[in-house]
UniProtKB/TrEMBL annotation:
Residues 306-340 are annotated as: Disordered. Residues 306-317 have a biased composition (Polar residues). Pfam families: C-C_Bond_Lyase. This is HpcH/HpaI aldolase/citrate lyase family protein. Residues 325-340 have a biased composition (Low complexity). GO terms for molecular function: lyase activity. Its cofactor is Mg(2+). It comes from Janthinobacterium fluminis. Keywords: Lyase, Magnesium, Metal-binding.
Length: 340
């Protein structure tokens, strides 16, 4: 089966802030077609945690109507987060399923991955498995899962791995505090290990959701840390979060200047710039990524304040402790979620 949306695979870094929308949403088709929320780079239509069991039949019916009437072409990457393998089978059988870029897989492990992959082996849908089970805390399990995903027939179909922060915290009997970032919880070290397990093999990861909608300054701080960890995207649960998150993906002018100098074939092997040592051999990959990121998200000039997006003072992220919060309370955003 041909999938016109597969052309999006050439734009892997452009996931940006992926907005989750429950498939029960009354404006599902308008959002999927870009008639509403036209600025979205990526959209995840959710049949899993965002849909109660009692509403699943309606959610799938509503999704089937949207797929049937969805535009063939879109600048937005469109995924369905399936509830389980059986739901994936039902979605793939719906007319218009070929219009999807791919699927977000729930609670994925090396033991259940093939149940999903076998269903799309002969399509061109891309996959984003979600790491949100107890296996995530087992380093050897993650290494074996990485080997599974690196199989030749599989690797090209993996767009990124998503980290299910809330599910992982739930396994520890915890909930994210209202102050602090995810990196100041026990998941901070876990995320670091996931990065060092998968990124050396070219498998990108996206950052967990930030669910406290009024804590915009902490969201700013967390996105900055996401980027420092090499994340290529982040889950958003409210449209207001999308521009705030993606504002951070704009590249500062000084980084662009540095990146261009590093990839300049006339640059020396080692040189000093912006009071830092630059080494072409070790910094070239970073430079290429920065240039691509600037192409996709633009350049932020020094006169532009990132705090303007957060509508509040940024937390003191250099202190390393969750007890150090914003010096003043950020202005709350409009409350709600993608369901409103």
């Amino acid at each position: 089966m041909d999938n016109p949306s597969y052309q999006h695979s050439a734009h892997k870094p452009a996931l940006g802030a992926s907005l989750y929308v429950p498939t029960t949403h009354k404006d599902l088709l308008a959002i999927a077609n870009g008639d509403k929320l036209a600025h979205l780079r990526s959209l995840i239509l959710c049949t899993e945690d965002a849909v109660a069991e009692r509403d699943l039949s309606y959610a799938l019916f509503n999704l089937s109507l949207a797929l049937r009437n969805m535009d063939e072409d879109s600048d937005t990457l469109r995924f369905v987060r399936v509830r389980n393998a059986e739901v994936m089978t039902r979605v793939l059988a719906m007319p218009g399923a070929h219009k999807l870029t791919g699927f977000v897989l729930p609670k994925t492990t090396r033991h259940n991955f093939d149940t999903y992959f076998a269903q799309v082996r002969h399509t061109q849908h891309l996959l984003m498995p979600t790491l949100e089970t107890a296996e995530v805390f087992d380093d050897e399990e993650m290494r074996q899962f990485c080997r599974c995903l690196c199989a030749p027939q599989v690797r090209a179909r993996i767009l990124a791995l998503r980290i299910g922060g809330n599910d992982l915290l739930a396994l520890l009997g915890l909930r994210r505090p209202t102050s602090g970032t995810i990196y100041q919880t026990p998941l901070g070290q876990v995320i670091g290990r996931l990065i060092t397990t998968f990124r050396p093999h070219g498998i990108a990861l996206t950052a967990p959701v930030f669910e406290h909608l009024s804590q915009r300054a902490w969201l700013d701080a967390e996105v900055a840390q996401d980027l420092a960890h090499g994340m290529i995207g982040k889950t958003a649960i409210h449209p207001d979060q999308v521009p705030q998150i993606e504002r951070h993906y704009q590249v500062v002018q000084s980084d662009i200047e540095l990146a261009l100098r590093i990839i300049d074939p006339d640059s020396p092997a080692v040189f000093r710039m912006q009071e830092s040592m630059c080494e072409v051999a070790t910094h070239s990959n970073w430079a290429k990524q920065i240039i691509e990121q600037a192409r996709l998200f633009g350049i932020r000039h020094s006169s532009d304040s990132i705090n303007n997006v957060g509508n509040g003072a940024s937390p003191d992220t250099h202190s390393g402790g969750a007890q150090h919060g914003p010096s003043q309370s950020p202005t709350p955003s409009t409350q709600g979620s993608a369901q409103t």
